[in-house]
Amino acid sequence: MENPCMNALPLTMTSSQKQVTVCIFGTGDFGRSLGLKMLQCGHAVVYGSRNPQMSSLLPSGAEVLSYPEAAQKSDIIIVAIHRDHYNFFIDLTEVLNGKILVDVSNNLKINQYPESNAEYLAQLVPGAHVVKAFNTISAWALQSGALDASRQVFVCGNDTNAKHRVMDIVRTLGLTPLDRGALVAAKEIENYPLQLFPMWRFPLCLSAMLCIFFFFYCVIRDIIYPYVYKKEDNTFRLAISIPNRVFPITALVLLALVYLPGVIAAILQLYRGTKYFRFPDWLDHWMLCRKQLGLVALGFAFLHVIYTLVIPIRYYVRWRLRNITVTQAINKKDDPFSISLAWLSDSYVSLGILGFFLFLLLGITSLPSVSNMVNWREFRFVQSKLGYLTLTLCTAHTLVYGGKRFLTPSALRWYLPSAYILALIAPCTVLVVKFILIMPCIDKTLTRIRQGWEKNSKSSKPLLFRKSDVSNKAECTWASEI
Amino acid sequence: MENPCMNALPLTMTSSQKQVTVCIFGTGDFGRSLGLKMLQCGHAVVYGSRNPQMSSLLPSGAEVLSYPEAAQKSDIIIVAIHRDHYNFFIDLTEVLNGKILVDVSNNLKINQYPESNAEYLAQLVPGAHVVKAFNTISAWALQSGALDASRQVFVCGNDTNAKHRVMDIVRTLGLTPLDRGALVAAKEIENYPLQLFPMWRFPLCLSAMLCIFFFFYCVIRDIIYPYVYKKEDNTFRLAISIPNRVFPITALVLLALVYLPGVIAAILQLYRGTKYFRFPDWLDHWMLCRKQLGLVALGFAFLHVIYTLVIPIRYYVRWRLRNITVTQAINKKDDPFSISLAWLSDSYVSLGILGFFLFLLLGITSLPSVSNMVNWREFRFVQSKLGYLTLTLCTAHTLVYGGKRFLTPSALRWYLPSAYILALIAPCTVLVVKFILIMPCIDKTLTRIRQGWEKNSKSSKPLLFRKSDVSNKAECTWASEI
Amino acid sequence: MENPCMNALPLTMTSSQKQVTVCIFGTGDFGRSLGLKMLQCGHAVVYGSRNPQMSSLLPSGAEVLSYPEAAQKSDIIIVAIHRDHYNFFIDLTEVLNGKILVDVSNNLKINQYPESNAEYLAQLVPGAHVVKAFNTISAWALQSGALDASRQVFVCGNDTNAKHRVMDIVRTLGLTPLDRGALVAAKEIENYPLQLFPMWRFPLCLSAMLCIFFFFYCVIRDIIYPYVYKKEDNTFRLAISIPNRVFPITALVLLALVYLPGVIAAILQLYRGTKYFRFPDWLDHWMLCRKQLGLVALGFAFLHVIYTLVIPIRYYVRWRLRNITVTQAINKKDDPFSISLAWLSDSYVSLGILGFFLFLLLGITSLPSVSNMVNWREFRFVQSKLGYLTLTLCTAHTLVYGGKRFLTPSALRWYLPSAYILALIAPCTVLVVKFILIMPCIDKTLTRIRQGWEKNSKSSKPLLFRKSDVSNKAECTWASEI
User: Fold this and answer.
1) Percent of chain B at pLDDT above 90?
2) Which residue in C172, C192, C367 is closest to B375 by CB distance?
3) Which residues of A touch C328 (CB under 8 A)?
4) Which of A30, A247, B228, C136 has the fewest CB atoms in 10 Å of its CB?
């Protein structure tokens, strides 16, 4: 739903509407931008400033007063001041008693101060109701109206009424308030706008490293080796042939790495005989970025698909096919049809297509709005069953690609095997270990552990009211897989 | 927004924060997992148990007391006990007076008991405020922190304050509370985690059946027939050629079945002369899973597209093209360019691409987050207008594919026509009937019926305040299409 | 979460549940549909009508009374009456005192009346709590249960309790209530269902115009010109060749137009030396539909990709390649391999693939559910950095496509250059100006302006509490780009 204040078309302006008077402390950029926006949306705005007569650049229509005077004009005071200057609030505690103080400040670094700015403000003015809001919106965006990104404003505060009044103001500005609970959440809300894809860093670095490694590996085998031995100039392969070798390999290795931590965790649980322990930090972190790893792998798989589909358009391929045909026509040699080659080529391609299709499905179900629609049981089904099927199909695709020339010594160049053989190590390991783990005897123990059973405990005691005994039978069906 | 409690990185831990004390009744797996999570997020946790001294495996830092002692330590009591043991609450009614009881239980089957567990609990302890929550989260997920799936916790309860306090706790655990209203909704919330794609079952079964039927149909025509008559071994066609015939056929039939129920409903309404009756159950169910039918069809269409695009890469195709060229070169025969063939081939491909593109658009608008952004009028426009355009384009694509050989007797093998001819029956029927329905005279009657007019009623009476008379003029524009 | 009332399967019907009694004023289509739905979901329904004994067609199970009698039966009264008849409420003010009046009405045109229907109702019955709701749901959808579109019901009202009670009823019907704040929002909510893609109109018109222009341009150069001079019949090119020239050109021009307003805005800001002024209306509107422009461009790019990938399947292409090969075989002429051609062809394709891949990423991040997950900093990073990279790659793709024949006089036909040369004007302009703008000296001034600095102001005054001074250092990193 587009709010009239956002798209600023004269047709839908509601400025004629009577809205609440809002007081803004601070005449910096954010204060001015927010004030302008509020004026546009029908609010009356009063600025509080240390030097009211010296404040310039304020939006026309807004009053400027000293802090105490401004505070008396409104119940709701927006504090657009840097935390370092909060100490002047000590003199205003009486005036601000019972008022709603909206802290909009941000910091320069994550966790810069021991407590959040909003909690600090609440300590300084104990009589006021402090609400944290607006800090996730940029001044520039408010100014330009170009809020194509998130319109979400995280709001938190200890007083429910105060929070709801601030949320109503947020709504009048065409933004979407999201209640984040009590003021304790302020720290998190203040850290939020400073993040830059924290969960994506590891997957992206890892895939970049894999790409670079396999790129140079392929360059050595496919460009330098022929140049040294046959004086062939194959540099044009850098544009398509080599990326189309590096991308699928990276995709397959990353996909295997999505499922590897689950397998490691299962082995750890079997070894320790309990699920009630913390995984090592590296494993924890790895498990938490599996979704991102999988999406990066999907990106590489997508590139591989398009790079493969353009093959017949390439000049080199057309030239080579033409040459083969011409040679054949000149020599009048017969080229018999090989059914086994047709089978190999078609099944290799078909496995790849099906693998990619399932991979895309996995990607779509990881879209936030889709994964919010499925329950845990469904999510487990998709991510675990379909995920392993995808990994199996993609591994089979690579194995069949190798086909007959798999591990023939002639494929070695400078003792280096083809790159795709290296790529098979991780997925094959995962699939073999997974196959062992789902064998009935091991699976049964693992399922019991994941239902709360412990190897070394005296849990034969009759714990009469164990929810797990009964209701976990249902749960285990979807919790038995990571 | 990632909550610090979720990704458990030391940097963002807020465990130092002071949070509410929570009491948990029951020391089973779910109770222990939830307690551990709460401790990690800064809550104090007190367990209530029948045999406090015999309870093992509890997270360190949590106290264990008897039920009445534990209940006195906190306002909020989480009931992680199986419903069968709820009867002991009868002895605790006094202690629990005014407290918030959070029912987290699940059942083993949908609608296992006449009333929901939470309502049953509310009957047992009338003085307490019962809130249903947390049942959609798995113990394993809480334990491992691997909440990549839905973080939504459905909350319902009759007391608003109690509900809001529970929602605040949900937020501190890094989960998203969703208010589902009064305690009546508990039954639905308890059934939710037991579902496994209920709306997808019919579409998937139907498409599997269609696939199998057309697969064997094609195998008979394309593999067994040539083998019997010409001793040709065409088995390699199983990998790509036959799937690429089965998938588009299934996609087209499923797409037609998306629009068939709407057409049937319109005929039923015309026949009965009113819209105020219930459709037969099968039609109701069919109409409700049209979206899923369409998405399955889109999946098959996508597979068809990729299977078609890889054609020039296949060994068989390259071999065949080479052989034709070589034969032509040896015979020095001229191959004149046929403009009509070029037109047929290009328009066939072009129609298919445009149809697939619109189909993708339909798929994208059915994403929950996208369809939430459009209003009814826009949704109707996309799904009805664009939908029929897609069906028309895809049907035309299939018709032009047939081209000149459509219904020539030589195409029959064992009296079986080509599979694509069978595929055309459903979409052509839908398009013809739809074309009749949108003819002005019929469309006018249908529109009146859908605005509330009834053939057999004496509605000539002056119902002075009929909203429909005036405001439905606007509505009919977007309600005139199913 | 599927609500039982929606999919109406007997298994999950909760009609046995005791729900609130609801009174509905008005027996028109919407009133009847809503009443039927409420009866199905377990509510008791009482209709209010001017002529109770003459009302027909009402759902069985509902009582029909006169207005005052019906009003006394329930706290919640749904007003399903057209605004023109609201004046009879004047006689009911006493009976309705303290009751909740739910206004569900819609208008025929956007902003038809000076104040919203709900506010008008609130003026007529000052003692009642007026809540706006249900107007975004169509009667037909309620009737058929086919709510595959948005289930969102926007709710607004001045009394929080009244609003929450209405939201609870909305939830029992299987719909999702969305709190839109106070009754002031009613106007916006009433306008909402009347919109038909307001933000998409300009982008779609613009792209249609571009398509038509380039289509005729290509028809003149590629079909009419050869026909006039060589009597060649190239009409079959209308199906694929010409669309595959028009679509990429339109995509590239639209993509450039996404970034052009940002560049213009930067120049305007530099020229005026301040950010505190309103952009001209056309620029404002242009900036607000950049997302839609980009998505339309992505659609054309997608079509271009598929049209390109089907090239080797086309009859014309196969015929031409075969002819070249046959001629070569007959003449026994050698065709030497050209490394520079291989480089050109491969890098051209590779640049296009990478550009399309990044373009797709941009499209995915503009999905509402994805863009809600990223903060401003991340959004800026993706849309600005990745966006310009995409534009650069796609422009390079077009430049390399031209390759050696770029601007050779032989490519002119009737003095018309190739269409792709026209397409390069807009993106090259944007890239050149952008390159100038990011040069350190200019970028520094621009950044200062966007932090609130003004060229002509006496802002050297010590504004002690300027939030911008400190905290904008963080902000500028993500606000320095539009």
Assistant:
1) 32
2) C192
3) 322, 326
4) B228
